[in-house]
Amino acid sequence: MTWDVLYTNVHLATMAGAEGYGELRNGAVAVKDGRIAWLGSAGDAAAAGSAATVHDGAGCWLTPGLIDCHTHIVHAGNRSDEFEARLNGATYEDISKAGGGIMSTVRATRAATDDELYAQSLPRIASLLAEGVTTLEIKSGYGLTLESEAKMLRVARRVGATLPVSVATTFLGAHAVPPEFAGRADDYVAEVCAMMPLLAGQGLVDAVDAFCERIGFSNAQTERVFQAAAALGLPVKLHAEQLSDQRGAELVARYRGLSADHLEHLTADGVAAMQAGGTVAVLLPGAYYFLRDTTPPPVAALRAAGVPMAVATDNNPGTSPMTSLLLAMNMVCTLWRLTPLEALAGCTVHAARALGRQNDIGTLEAGKRADFALWDIARPADLCYSFGYNPCRGVVNGGVLRAPAL
After folding, report:
1. Are 384 and 340 in contact (CB under 8 A)?
2. Considering only CA atoms, which of 115, 230, 104, 107 is closest in space to residue 162?
3. N or C: which end of the chain has fewer CB within 10 A?
4. Which DSSP state fits 359?
5. What was the pLDDT predicted at 405?
6. How far apart are CA 266 and CA 38, in angstroms?
7. How many whole angstroms separate alpha carbon 55 and alpha carbon 399?
8. DSSP state of 320
9. How far is CA 156 from CA 150, 203, 260, 340, in A?
10. Quick one: pLDDT at residue 404?
């Protein structure tokens, strides 16, 4: 067999199989037409085939490309002024009265052109790509009008078309009630449901999300959004149980949703529902840290129930301005006692499932998309052990190597 590229002299953490990292030392991976065509021992490669291009990995570790499965990374402006104000004694109410909070980001995002929104988002995205991210979920939710939500989703598609990263888009129109609908949340939910077929018809929506919370949307209002998504054949996911128990996890699991995200106030009933519905738990340590929360998600209960746990940055300007998935991996280990294996699985195989793409990405297996990252580390656990350090030495997206080159 003739391959396009062979990556050899690498240790593989395939993340495939039921246990461990799926380690294969002194391995090799062959790529054909952007897919993994073969992988195995480097010593067996010559008998299996040949490649026009061979890259020597110098004994580094090769993992699946990292997947950030929950971000709000396309937005305009930032809220560092609010961060500073809070540390100088201002309350959330003070900031809101002064025009801050999520509506500050909504105003900035509405005012930005497509090009401005793209340009402001690039540095944040570049930080993730430099750390081995090959797939990125991007939500809307800072427009809250048809025009501005479409703009955010167009920019997200542009990111995927112009940068070496696969992008999954999520329509989050039910993120907050905009000022023009103040006191009329039900009317705004109807508006969100009316936006959905128009945006989906433009090919801008891969999934639908909502913020089910006392300061967001009720369980009943969220279900209306889910019903509209189901009518269009769109999968759903949910910001659930971050600040209180609104039984959102049970709701999204009933719709066999892709994921329930945050989950600090998840109950035993919610865990059971997620297990039955095949819904992934997406853990977001950045917001927990930034808000100085003290109620951790029930990791032990999720683990005992066999609910897959993904890990993501939740990059957003208000509660998690984090652009390092490696830091998120360290945080879930130090704050919530996930193991390094669970943390890496959370950014690969389980993150792929949270996007409904487990058959295409997330593990190193023949037939899957050739997305992987090369790391100058002694063992896979090093990815969680060090923080503030980036050991990534190369990234392959769809079979194409990008800098830093091997």
Report:
1. yes
2. 115
3. N
4. T
5. 41
6. 42
7. 12
8. B
9. 10, 12, 22, 30
10. 53
For residues 375 and 63, the answer to whether their CB atoms sit within 8 Å is yes
126 HSE (CA, 13 A, CB side): 8
Structure tokens belonging to residue 139: 């939500």
Query: Can you list the alpha helix ranges (DSSP code H) found in 268-354?
Result: 268-277, 285-290, 299-305, 325-336, 340-346, 349-354
Q: How far is CA 228 from CA 10, 32, 189, 210, in A?
A: 47, 40, 10, 12
Tokens of 334: 């130090």
Q: Are 15 and 348 in contact (CB under 8 A)?
A: yes
8 A C-beta contact, residue 391 and residue 375:
yes
Contact 336, 301 (CB under 8 A): no
Best CA proximity match to 63, nearest among 380, 381, 391: 380
The two structure tokens encoding residue 137: 């979920």
Instruction: Identify the residue whose tokens are 């039900």.
Output: 186
Q: How far is CA 155 from CA 69, 132, 208, in A?
A: 17, 22, 17
Structure tokens that stand for 338 in this block: 């996930």
Residues 336-358, buried b or exposed e (16+ Cβ, 10 A)? Answer: bebebbbbbbbbbbbbbbbbbbb
pLDDT block averages, 10 residues each, the chain of length 406: 96 93 98 98 95 95 98 96 90 75 94 98 97 98 98 98 97 96 97 98 98 96 98 98 97 98 98 98 97 96 98 97 98 98 98 98 98 97 96 95 61
Closest C-alpha to 339, from 296, 309, 295: 309
Instruction: Let me know the angle formed at the C-alpha of 380 by 334 and 136, rounded to the nearest 5 degrees.
Output: 75
Q: Is 246 helix (H, G, I), strand (E, B) or coil?
A: coil
Q: What is the largest CA-CA distance in the chain?
A: 70
Please name the helix (run of DSSP H) or strand (run of DSSP E) that holds residue 211, with its range, or none.
strand 207-212
